[in-house]
Write a structure and sequence with these properties.
- This protein is of the alpha+beta class.
- The protein is built from eleven helices and 22 strands.
- The strands form six sheets. Strands 2, 5, 6, 7, 9, 11, 12, 14, 16, 18, 19 and 21 form a twelve-stranded mixed β-sheet that branches. A two-stranded antiparallel sheet has the order 1-17. Strands 3-8 form a two-stranded antiparallel sheet.
- Helix 2 packs parallel to helix 11, helix 3 packs across helix 5 and helix 6 crosses helix 7.
- The longest helix is centred in the N-terminal third of the chain and has 24 residues.
- It is globular and about 65 Å long.
- The termini are far apart.
C-alpha cells in the first residue's frame, strides 16, 4: 500500500511539474485580426510618413554594373576546406567538398538626377541580417555614394551555396556552424560589387518585359489546388557603350540540386546567368533574383541533377534571348527608392496547431526582432524586396493590381533580413513545412505583409 501511495505521489508530482512547465513555456496562437493590432497601426503610420518624404527624380538614366566573387576564398584559413553548404537541413552542416561552378555578387546601380538606387543579387541561399548590418557599417565608414536604405537586396536562393553565416540553432540547422569570418568576407564582397557599379555609372537606357514560363514551376504546397506564379520578369539596362545588364526574377525555388550534392553551385539560376553572358558576350551582366518563391518548386526532368539544372536555366535564358529584339528602350525615367521598417507580431513557433512557445522562449532559437520592405520605382517598373520566402500566390494578385494601372510589378524575396515563409492566411492551419514549421509570425503575417506591399506599390505609383 505504501509503495502504491509513493508511486501515486511521484506521478502526481511529475504531472504538476509538467503542467507548470507547459504553463510557463506555452501560449495560445493569437487570432486577433492584424488590422486591430498595434504593430499594424504603427507600420501603417510609418509607411504614410515614408511615402510623404519620398522624393522621386525624373530625367535621363545613368547606370553602372559591378560584380564580386562569392566563391569561397581558399586563401583564407578554413575557407573552401571546412566551410559548409547552406540550404538543406538534411546535410546537418556538412562541409562542402569542392566548387562545381563559381558564385558571384552582382549589382546594378541606377541614378536619375540626385536619386541613386542599387539592385543587388547574389548566388546565395539568403542574405542574412548579420551580413546586411555589416554592409551598412562599411558603406557608411567608407563614404560610399549610396545610402544603405537605397540598396535593394536579393539572392538566387540556391541551396548549394556558402554557409556558416547564421548564429543560432535554426540558422545553423540550414547553414552549418557559424563562422564570423564568413560574415566579414561576404560583406566586403557586397560592398566591392556596389562600389564597382557606382564607379561604372554612365548614360543608359532601360526596357521591361515579362513572359509566362509555366513549364518549369509547380505549386509544392497544395499542388493543382493552388495557383502558380509562372511569370518571368525582366529588366534590361544598356549603357551607351553597349554593355548590358539583364535582371531576371522567377518564382521557382533553386532546388534542382538535391541535399546529396556537396559542391558549391548556383543551381539553375547559375546556368541561366552563364548562358546569357556566354551567348551575348563580354560586357553582359546577367543577374538572377529569387521571385516570390514561397510554395513554388522547380519542375525539371531527365538526366542527373546538374543536367536538369542546366536544362532549366538554359531554357529560361533562351526565352529571354527571344524577347531581347522586341524590347522598347527608354532613356528618360522616374526613379525613387523606399525603405520601410516593419513591426512584427509576436513570434509563433508552434508546438501544435493552436499552441506555441512563449515569445521569450522562441527568441532563444529564432532571434528575429525586426524587418523591413525595400522598394524602388524605375519608370513603369515597381520592384519590392521582401524579407522572406514570399508566396507566389500572393504575388499574382499584387502584380495584377499594378498591371491594371499600367505598371509592371516584381516581388522578390530575401531582401537582407529573413522572417521565414509568408503565405496566404488560409493555409496557416495546414501541417506542412511552409505553413507549420516556417511560418514564424502567426496566422495573419501573410495578409499583413501583403497589404503593406500593396500600399507600397500604390504609393510608388502616385509619383
Amino acid at each position: 500500500m505504501k509503495k502504491r501511495f509513493s508511486f501515486l505521489k511521484i506521478s502526481t508530482g511529475v504531472l504538476v511539474v509538467l503542467l507548470a512547465l507547459a504553463v510557463l513555456s506555452l501560449k495560445k496562437v493569437d487570432y486577433q485580426p492584424y488590422y486591430e493590432a498595434e504593430y499594424y497601426t504603427s507600420t501603417r503610420a510609418r509607411l504614410d510618413s515614408v511615402l510623404a518624404g519620398t522624393r522621386p527624380a525624373e530625367g535621363p538614366l545613368l547606370a553602372g554594373f559591378g560584380r564580386a566573387s562569392l566563391t569561397p576564398d581558399t586563401s583564407r584559413a578554413g575557407f573552401g576546406k571546412s566551410l559548409p553548404l547552406a540550404g538543406y537541413g538534411k546535410r546537418r552542416g556538412k562541409a562542402a567538398t569542392g566548387v562545381h561552378d563559381s558564385l558571384f555578387i552582382k549589382a546594378i546601380a541606377l541614378r536619375v538626377q540626385e536619386q541613386t538606387a542599387v539592385l543587388l543579387s547574389q548566388d546565395a541561399l539568403i542574405m542574412h541580417s548579420a551580413v546586411t548590418e555589416r554592409v551598412n557599417r562599411l558603406l557608411e565608414e567608407r563614404g560610399v555614394a549610396v545610402a544603405p536604405h537605397q540598396v535593394l537586396y536579393s539572392a538566387t536562393h540556391s541551396h548549394s551555396c556558402i554557409g556558416g553565416w547564421g548564429d543560432g540553432v535554426i540558422y545553423e540547422l540550414f547553414a552549418g556552424p557559424y563562422d564570423a569570418r564568413v560574415v566579414q568576407w561576404w560583406a566586403e564582397q557586397v560592398v566591392a560589387a556596389i562600389e564597382r557599379a557606382l564607379a561604372d555609372l554612365t548614360p543608359a537606357r532601360y526596357a521591361l518585359a515579362s513572359f509566362p514560363a509555366s513549364a518549369f514551376v509547380r505549386n509544392r504546397l497544395v499542388g493543382s489546388r493552388g495557383r502558380i506564379d509562372s511569370t518571368f520578369s525582366l529588366l534590361a539596362v544598356r549603357q551607351q557603350d553597349g554593355d548590358l545588364a539583364l535582371a531576371g526574377a522567377y518564382a521557382a525555388h533553386a532546388t534542382v540540386l538535391p541535399p546529396s550534392n556537396t559542391q558549391f553551385s548556383g543551381d539553375y539560376p547559375g546556368y541561366w546567368q552563364r548562358k546569357l553572358e556566354d551567348e551575348l558576350g563580354e560586357g553582359t551582366h546577367a543577374v538572377f533574383f529569387a521571385g516570390a518563391v514561397g510554395s513554388h518548386s522547380p519542375y525539371a526532368q531527365g538526366g542527373q541533377p546538374f543536367e536538369q539544372a542546366e536544362a532549366l536555366g538554359t531554357a529560361l535564358a533562351d526565352s529571354v534571348l527571344r524577347y531581347l529584339p522586341k524590347l522598347a528602350w527608354k532613356q528618360q525615367a522616374v526613379l525613387a527608392s523606399l525603405f520601410l521598417p516593419i513591426d512584427l507580431p509576436e513570434l509563433h513557433a508552434r508546438l501544435t496547431t493552436n499552441w506555441r512557445f512563449r515569445p521569450a522562449l522562441a527568441r532563444r532559437f529564432l532571434p528575429i526582432t525586426g524587418t523591413e520592405l525595400r522598394a524602388l520605382r524605375l519608370g513603369e517598373l515597381l520592384w519590392v524586396g521582401t524579407p522572406c520566402d514570399f508566396s507566389g500566390e500572393l504575388a499574382i494578385d499584387l502584380r495584377n493590381h499594378a498591371a491594371v494601372q499600367g505598371f509592371q510589378a516584381v516581388i522578390s524575396s530575401f531582401n537582407g533580413s529573413y522572417i521565414g515563409y509568408v503565405i496566404p492566411g488560409h493555409y496557416y492551419r495546414m501541417h506542412s513545412y511552409e505553413s507549420f514549421n516556417m511560418s514564424f509570425f502567426g496566422p495573419y503575417m501573410g495578409p499583413y505583409l501583403n497589404e503593406m506591399v500593396r500600399r507600397t506599390l500604390d504609393g510608388l505609383m502616385r509619383y
